[in-house]
Amino acid sequence: MTAQSTEGLADPDIAPLPEGLRRASAGGTAKLALLVGALGVVYGDIGTSPIYALQTIFNPADPHPVPTNIANVYGVISLIFWSLVLIVTVFYVSLAMRADNDGEGGIMALITLIRRHSQGRGRKAGLILAALGIFGAALFLGDSMITPAISVLSAVEGLKTVNPDLETFIIPVTVVIIVMLFAFQRKGTAVIGRWFGPIMIVWFSTLAVLGIGGIARNPEILRALSPLYAIDFLFGHFSIAFFALAAVILTFTGAEALYADMGHFGRKPISRAWLFIVFPALLLNYMGQGALILEDTANIAGSFFLLAPEWARIPLLVLTGAATVIASQAVISGAFSVAAQASELGYLPRLRIAHTSEHHFGQIYVPWINWLLMVSVLTLVFAFRTSESLAFAYGMAVIGTIVIVTILFLYIARNRWGAPRWLLAVGGGLLLAINVLFLAASSTKIIHGAWLPLLIGVTAFTVMITWQRGREVVSAERERREGPLREFVDKMRRGEPKAAQVPGTGVFLGRGKDSAPLALRAALELNHARYAQTVVLSVQTEPVPRVPDEERIIVDDLGHCEDSVIHVTARFGYAETPDVPRALRLVRPEQSEGRKLRLDKAVYFLSTIQLKAGTEPTMATWRKHLFIATSHITSDAAEHFQLPRDRTVIVGSHIEV
């Protein structure tokens, strides 16, 4: 059991988008900075896929191996090229990134768009799709555990190409890098972020140069650009190609990052970086590796590092390590963002979130998620021990998220944009069919490791929907106990109950203007005291990243303009840290009886509750205990709302779920 703030269990409202939240266009220098930044953060994951993707596809230890021959090499390279074209270029860059929530992208943004649209109509479909989206977000958390493990492992495995005797050091070196990576998360990416872009420019340049060198040794590989090779491989050798698709997925891991990080860099910089830098570099490198494999099938093991001349392999190993750390950093930051947004939207408890940069708002650190990820990543490294083994598990999380994003996008395209049914049936149907085919192929790896991201996803999904349901139960019981706020204020005016007026300002945090906070009732009914200025404040999370100050505050005099009791709604975006004292300073004197709120010595009151499993059939017993256990990670309410510790009073109660 744990004491919980009532605000942490309050349902956030979904309100219409406020005006004035559009991003201003940047100048030429700023645009270049955004493009370089996008290279460092957005493309770390997909940019490191060449390290392990091809050797995984042709891995002889695979339960469904792809024979290494000329036809299959051409077919695989062609499949990779057209997968990157259709899934990344066409779907994500050209289509999905146009479905933004005030500039923010990713699966959580789609969920908020669907929730907002389904309020008036299609509520049942909206709830089903939102639940599907939550499962996609849960899969992304699984991806966030697997990516650092497979990325760092695959980079360190390059030691074998330098000296086979160094193989025994792979696991220890990997563990040290991972521990250091997570230990430095609390410092944020503000300090090292400026280095990410330049390093990744060097990385993608290296990919292109190595690829060109490989192609020069066997230019015939350029034939693979023709879709005929992909079609012939897929349909002419379906029994082989179908299983190969599960590994081809590895070539577009990180595609969701393009969409999820759109709010940090904007659609155009991300699109331009992909079209003019990342995509050409990846394509050249994959074709160079294909040419190397055609030259000698023994080059399959370590085909990426063997593209480099022997003298350059140690520098390449160092650069690869840096690139994989950046890739890991990007996906970890993505996990922080997803968890923070899920918390603000009511699918996870309120988490302690630290903003690590004064200049880049999206850079956050979530301690609980950080250490959970570190333990999970280390567990994966010790359990699987090689990048090839982890690759079996990797694809399921990636393609599962992509399939769900595709479904949510098609719903938005039809119901929000009014796209013609025939266009969705043809274009959307084709995209969905391709993604489902990849998903089906990945499902063949379930017994070989793909069960892992599914297990992680199901576990995270269960926690999220259980928390959401538990909050609904608690909110309903609290609403019954609190009673209507206006009715309570009317009684206060009549002197019921009798209470002595004390000087100063009392701020009582509650769930909304329809109910009286438990702390306010306790102050009057138990202490028989009321403040000269009484503010009932509710914090409302909007389905937008940020809310401007001019739209931050809504004041209601509760029907008695001459009275000293007002209700204030403080609106914050889901990407913001609520600062209640600062928000209250925005209340103008004319909104509070013509008197300025005296906040220097204001006392803040929080209601907390003790959760207990009851006998009412609100949820299954195991879900009740899961809800109570999950509540233990809830962050401190006073810290979350930036309340002064020395002037915060906590009033407790208990509720059975």
From TrEMBL:
It comes from the Bacteria. It catalyses: K(+)(in) + H(+)(in) = K(+)(out) + H(+)(out). GO terms for molecular function: potassium ion transmembrane transporter activity; symporter activity. InterPro entries: K+_transporter (IPR003855), K_trans_C (IPR053952), K_trans_N (IPR053951), Kup (IPR023051). It is a multi-pass membrane protein. One of its GO terms (cellular component) is plasma membrane. It is found in: Cell membrane; Membrane. Residues 35-490 form the K+ potassium transporter integral membrane domain. Keywords: Cell membrane, Ion transport, Membrane, Potassium, Potassium transport, Symport, Transmembrane, Transmembrane helix, Transport. Residues 503-656 form the K+ potassium transporter C-terminal domain. The keyword Cell membrane applies. The chain crosses the membrane at residues 32-53, 73-93, 125-146, 166-184, 196-216, 228-252, 273-294, 361-384, 390-410, 422-440, 446-467. Pfam families: K_trans (PF02705), K_trans_C (PF22776). Belongs to the HAK/KUP transporter (TC 2.A.72) family. PANTHER family: LOW AFFINITY POTASSIUM TRANSPORT SYSTEM PROTEIN KUP, OSMOTIC STRESS POTASSIUM TRANSPORTER. Transport of potassium into the cell. Likely operates as a K(+):H(+) symporter. This is Probable potassium transport system protein Kup. It comes from Glycomyces luteolus. The gene is kup.
